[in-house]
Amino acid sequence: MRNLFQLITAIVVAVLLTNPVNAASIINGEYANFAPGPDDDVKVICDVDDDYDRFTDYANGYSLLVPHGLTVDASLSPVITVLSNDTLRMEIFYDNFAGTAKTSAEYMSYSNNFINNTRDHTLLSEETYQQDELAIHLLHWTRRKLVHVPNDKNYYTSIEIAPNANEVYTVVIKSTQPIENAAEIAASFTLTERRGIPHFNRPTGQGHTPFNAETRAFYDKFFSAASPLRWGIFEPAAPQTFEKLDIIEQQLNYTFPVLLRYQSFDERLPILALNAAYERGRTVELTLQTTYNFTDNSGAIYDILSGKYDDYFNIYAEQLKAFNHPILFRLNNEMNGDWCWYSAHYYSKDAELYKTMWRYIRTVFDNHGVDNVIWVWNPHDMSFPNFKWNHYLMYYPGDEYVDVIGLTGYNTGNYFSGEKWREFDGIYPQVYRDYDQHFAKPFMITEFGSNSVGGNKTAWLNRMFDQIGQFNKIKIAIWWNGIDYDTNGQPGRIYILDETEETTAAFRQGLTSFSRQ
Asked: CA distances (Å), 264 to each of 222, 291, 293, 296, 513, in order?
């Protein structure tokens, strides 16, 4: 069968070469004119008429009509295939939930919960119907135009096509104009026999941020290829006060050079905290989460891109420039988790808006000459929901906008329903290998910890310290020294490192192998 497929695809490619105006092939993410092998990722787009082309994705097993003249981007084929022009963008995803508790029906329901936010989304129409053996869900909606989104495509259609209870194809169409041909596109959808394997083909690069001299020196010291692993900590009171942190550091005989500090829209740049850290020789990993505490933030990204926070970010940038010392700036971390208001779960399943928000804020900083910020991009190690439109790569703003890749994975223990004890080597080897194939940038563990509920925390720490040094691209690891409580105020995730004499001793011993400078 593979030989037959090779013969067929070779014939297809030969036809394409003799009639390039009417058809094109994309092999392993690139427009190509060679015969593919049996494992290659082959996609073909052919003219049908003045209005439509037929796009066939052999690796993902489908074919459908698409508007004529779109350019194909298959660089993230295992996650998404994009067809686009200046006024329209089609995103195509394939999810398979075999072996999981999820179903295609649950996917369709949960993926579209954003439509319940009627302040920001206007439902135009919705229907569910059967098309031969396929279950079809068709959703049309729109939202306001966003001034900071170039050529904003604010009309949406989502076509979800389920061949069975485990599989679902999603076609998200975004346009500058109302979309009127979605039903016709859905009717054209057919399954094809899968051939080949989806391939990633995203170029990786370092990018370039013009740091000032002090920030460049910090970056070279902490993030060069030869830099050793160093440690940081989140201690809730620091750096506003060092009272508790001083005690911890004395117990550990270790001075943490990096301190994690959070902020939301409830405050401006925490300049007093930054100064307090600098006076003690520490650098802050400043985590800005574009939310307000204790309120509904479901429209915050739309508001940012509508210009509501222009003054906030301009003042913020001016204050950063005035501070002028190195800052690790982590913007809207764990964006692939639905517990974050800035997840695409709340924004039309449209992770492009997250990337546009990031680039907009970066541009504001650049316009103010901010050259003391090291940009840290940081997904969670597991996506919630674990759907392709919420894959962590969907949120990456581009190599030129990011300086350091952040890793976050916790051993949450088993206090809360659905959570389980995870060893360090059950979290970080996999995420490290995965990120390493996509990013040519230094890594840091921006926050992590182990619960004491569900296993032996001291043993976990000992194994973690034995294993973490093997990941040579990880240059900083920050322990999250806090507690997550349940709704009754009871401790559910106890991450504090000095919880017992044994855990303190394990941390103290583990740190002896790592640099204090």
From this structure: 27, 5, 7, 13, 36
